[in-house]
Design goal:
This protein is an alpha/beta fold. The chain folds into 2 domains: about 45 residues, no CATH class; about 280 residues, TIM Barrel (Alpha-Beta Barrel), CATH 3.20.20. Helices cover about 45% and strands about 20% of the residues. The chain has 15 helices and 13 strands. The chain has a 9-stranded mixed beta sheet with strand order 9-10-8-7-6-5-4-1-11, sandwiched between helices. A two-stranded parallel sheet has the order 2-3. Strand 5, helix 7 and strand 6 form a beta-alpha-beta unit. Helix 1 packs across helix 3 and helix 6 runs parallel beside helix 7. The longest helix has 25 residues. The chain is globular, with a radius of gyration of 21 Å. The structure holds S-adenosylmethionine (SAM) and iron/sulfur cluster.
Length: about 400
């Protein structure tokens, strides 16, 4: 096993390293100066220095080409069929919480209605819509139409991208995907995380590997860009286990592949195993990541966005890869903080990006509090009028 650099990002801290490189470009630093600064002052390794410069330039160009008054819209669905053990996102399993889906949807529609009014009043152009969570395809086709019909009707004509994170293969059916395609959705995720059944069982994913292939084949009947999420460092996975997952995913030839590194947050059930895992996994995870770089590049993929998380194994990163020119624009805009993202739903954060400042509006993180205090949320959202009138 190769010895790994345990600080691949050196002294470059924060979850958005690329954002910092883009700012260096905006301050007119040359590419050579940036690479020198990253490698010599900040001790970033060669791979990460080059990759983050490449991505910084991408973010810089995207920012320059944005349409005036354009924004993105995020819609959060905090439900999944069951909770996965490693998950660091807020979500409730419908195995126990199904009765809360309808009331949540009603509340969400109210917030979406008020938010749509603000976007329309201000004449903003919605560039991208991202429906995430959780697992939005936990909703049935009727619920998807109820939620996304108004989005398509109001913003369909200006949209450059419409993503729904289908995610869990066990929620994917042909009728749901057909509904999504009729509603203008053009990008979805079918996420294996791992294609080793023993790992899926261990992390409580509660679906089979066959369901991943089946969901992918259903999705290919439509004209979606497909993303597939994988995670390095899952419990007890060997390098060969990860290689197998990635090779299988590559064979399916999706437009996007995202390689996450396991991050173990306080809230996750796996936290207690963190130290043990970290020591054991740092080197293994580094090798898995190296393998992902080599084989994704060999198979024609290029990185399009990158971010880091606290408590990420081996101090590594998460990278979204694209084949051809198929990036998820929302991910670049949101992670780069280069465009306003107006968000609805529980735990959603609206990020207002102005010429000189960025401000945030936070929604409640608890579903019941969110529903009880919807009027307060809608009132707080009216601040968008003031911000936009001053900043655009
Ligand atoms: C918001 S989740 C939603 C995805 C969808 N519900 C699913 O599970 O397929 C987005 C992605 O974050 C990644 N993720 C979640 N928790 C993570 C963790 N603790 N460490 C690394 N990646 C994680 C997974 O790859 C997941 O697909
Ligand atoms: S990983 Fe996805 S399916 Fe699993 S709990 Fe998290 S959001 Fe839900």
């Amino acid at each position: 096993m190769t010895e790994k650099n345990l600080k691949p990002w050196g002294e470059l801290y924060g979850i958005r390293p690329v954002n910092q490189i883009r700012q260096m470009l905006e301050q007119n630093m040359t590419e050579d100066e940036i690479i020198f600064h990253l490698k010599n002052d900040l001790k970033v390794d060669d791979t990460r220095a080059k990759m983050s410069l490449y991505l910084g330039k991408k973010e810089y160009n995207e920012k320059k080409s944005l349409r005036k008054n354009s924004v993105s819209l995020y819609i959060g669905i905090p439900f999944c069929p069951t909770r996965c053990a490693y998950c660091s996102f807020f979500s409730m399993g419908t195995d126990r919480m199904a009765k809360h889906v309808e009331p949540y949807l009603e509340g969400l529609l109210k917030e979406l209605f008020e938010t749509t009014k603000i976007i329309k009043d201000l004449g903003l152009l919605v560039d991208t819509v991202y429906v995430g969570g959780g697992t939005p395809t936990t909703l049935n086709p009727e619920q998807l139409v109820k939620l996304l019909g108004p989005v398509y009707d109001n913003f369909g004509s200006s949209l450059r991208e419409f993503t729904v994170e289908a995610g869990r293969p066990d929620t994917v059916t042909e009728s749901k995907l057909h509904t999504l395609s009729l509603l203008g959705v053009d990008r979805i995720s079918i996420n294996p995380q791992s294609l080793n059944q023993k790992t899926l069982d261990k992390i409580g994913r509660k679906h089979t590997t066959e369901q991943v292939y089946k969901a992918f084949n259903i999705a290919r009947k439509f004209d979606f860009k497909i993303n597939m999420d994988t995670i390095t460092g899952l419990p007890d996975e060997t390098e060969d286990d990860f290689k197998y997952t990635l090779d299988e995913v590559l064979a399916l030839n999706p437009e996007n592949i995202t390689v996450h590194t396991l991050s173990i947050k306080r809230a996750a059930d796996l936290k207690k195993k963190q130290e043990e895992l970290e020591n054991k996994m740092a080197s293994i995870v580094g090798n898995m990541t190296d393998y992902s770089h080599e084989s994704l590049i060999k198979n024609g993929y290029k990185p399009y966005y990158l971010y880091r998380q606290r408590d990420i194994l081996g101090h590594l990163e998460n990278v979204g890869w694209e084949k051809g020119d198929t990036p998820c624009l929302y991910n670049i805009l949101m992670m780069g903080e280069i465009q306003t993202v107006i968000s609805v739903g529980v735990g959603a954060v609206t990020k207002l990006v102005g010429k000189n400042k960025t401000e945030r509006i936070f929604n409640m993180k608890d579903v019941f509090e969110y529903l009880n205090r919807l009027d307060e949320i809608n009132e707080k959202k009216k601040y968008i009028y003031k911000f936009m009138e001053e900043e655009i």
